[in-house]
Amino acid sequence: MSVQVMLILVLFFWDIGSIFSDRKGTHPVQSGEPASISRRINNHMSSFEETKQMDKIISSFVKRYKVKGASVAVTKDGRLVYAKGFGYANEEEAEEVEPGHVFRIASISKLITAVAIMHLIEEGKLALDSRVFGSEGILNDDKYSDYKDRRVENITIQHLLEHKGGWSKYYGDPIFMPHVVARKMKVSLPVSSEDVIRYTLTRKLSYTPGTRYSYSNLGYMLLGEVIEKITGMGYEDYVKFSLLNPLGIWDMQIGKGYYEEKAANEVKYYEVVGEQKVLAFDSYDSYGSRVYGGNDISLLGAAGGWIASPAEVLKLTVAIDGFNSSPDILIPETIEKMTRSGRSRHNVIGWKGTDGRGTWWRTGTLTGSSALMVRQSNGINWIIMMNTTTWKKSKIHRETSRTMFRAVNTVRRWPEFDLFDQQVPTPIHSNFLTRVD
């Protein structure tokens, strides 16, 4: 490689601490200098002969469903062995997706919130049977003391975690009804989580808490409020300080609703062409797209507001996956409670479901974004994030799952190194690969 080319590469990757000596593959070496995982890796570090077929399958999927951009990460035995982007982070600016780009992860945020709650339970600051409302409840503030249905006093932390709080979709999802909430509660836009909760308490429950499953964003919003009340910290601050930062995760944060507010390394989101304009979440007379202004991402918060890179989500995942290859931040009994192998998927905590044989999964969908994460029984975890609503909309998860399982299964040998520890790359050789059993 010429001195001129090397200089260009040095200057180009200076800000993320990466210098390349071989575009076909690199081997990571630790330097000890702390930095975000997302900013220490790039697509070339996951370019191997062994993953070419996987790359081809994912690229074909992206093209077939007209996905603007996607990002994939894989861990094997606790090591980050693959992290690569496909397509565009911003098509108009021809900005290609790199592992460092962050995406809206929607309801994968619920897993983060559930981990935070279970962590507090392990510390003895909370219990699964702790009541949420009422004079003896955690949220016993005056602002939440006026409720129409006395049964809310029976709602427990476990009910919220398992989507059994007593609410249904009969009245719609109040988190996505800011104008209705604002008018009813006589508050200005944008509404707050307090406004949404108080609005919900003005209506009767659809069923007795604990008796029926009904997927609830509100329940996880309430868990975010519980975390704030118990810790005395903001929800986002607590999760970062107590869970993410100690793991070396620095880029994850609660996202924003408008393009102008997006994070520096955040992708642009795309909805289906011709999608009808909607009323902005913070206005009564301004219309725009659902991806920018249609949904209040900050309000979703604990239920669906996080943005992250695939690599950083997997950094958290390997700390809660129950494998012996790397330390977990939760005890085995807690992880078992969250996954409950062999039981109804309606009893899982944080996760979307399990198959009873060691495979767990979590999905996340918002207009303009989609994410799917899977923990397999063979020590492999993977995640794919997309910045586009396809013509299949939320049904894309089924095809995404098929594609990713097929793609991952084509790889017979994964790198033995760990991109989580990446600082300065050196040329890679065949002995850095390990066979998949």
Summed up, the domain count is: 2
Global morphology: globular
Give the oligomeric state. single chain
- Strand runs, count: 16
Instruction: Return Rg in Å.
Output: 22 Å
What structural class do the secondary elements suggest?
A: alpha+beta
Helix content: 25-40%
Query: What composes the largest sheet?
Result: 7 strands, antiparallel
Give the SSE string: HEHEEEEHHHHHHEEEHHEHHEEEEHEEE
Strand order in space, largest sheet: 4-3-2-13-12-11-10
What is the overall number of helices?
Answer: 13
Could you list the spans in which at least 5 consecutive residues all have pLDDT below 50? 1-33, 424-437
Strand content: 15-25%
State the distance separating the first and last CA atoms: 37 Å
Give a topology summary:
Elements: H1 3-13, E1 26-29, H2 52-64, E2 69-76, E3 79-90, E4 95-96, E5 103-104, H3 108-122, H4 157-161, H5 178-185, H6 193-201, H7 217-231, H8 235-244, E6 253-254, E7 278-279, E8 287-288, H9 290-294, H10 297-304, E9 306-308, H11 310-317, H12 332-339, E10 353-354, E11 360-366, E12 369-375, E13 380-386, H13 396-409, E14 413-415, E15 424-427, E16 433-435
Antiparallel strand pairs: 1-15, 2-3, 2-13, 3-4, 5-9, 6-9, 7-8, 10-11, 11-12, 12-13, 14-16
Helix pairs in contact: 2-13, 3-7, 3-10, 5-6, 7-10
